[in-house]
Design a protein that fits this description.
Blueprint: H1 9-19, H2 24-31, H3 35-49, H4 54-65
Length: 72
Amino acid sequence: MTNDFDLTPRERDVLAGVIAGRKNREIARALGLSEQTVKNVLTTVFEKCHVRNRLELALFAVRNLGGRSDPE
């Protein structure tokens, strides 16, 4: 998928955690990252997807990615 919100594999993994309703700490543990890294990645994802928070990000994913973090 080519667009202005192309996400890296790591960003897609973090997005998947958000879609699943996980907290930053849970996402960090599952991916072997620090909680701060997850926060930094989310900031970048928010910017790329033009959203301001997790709720908007989840809604964005449902509308634009079919609720998936791995667009075809």
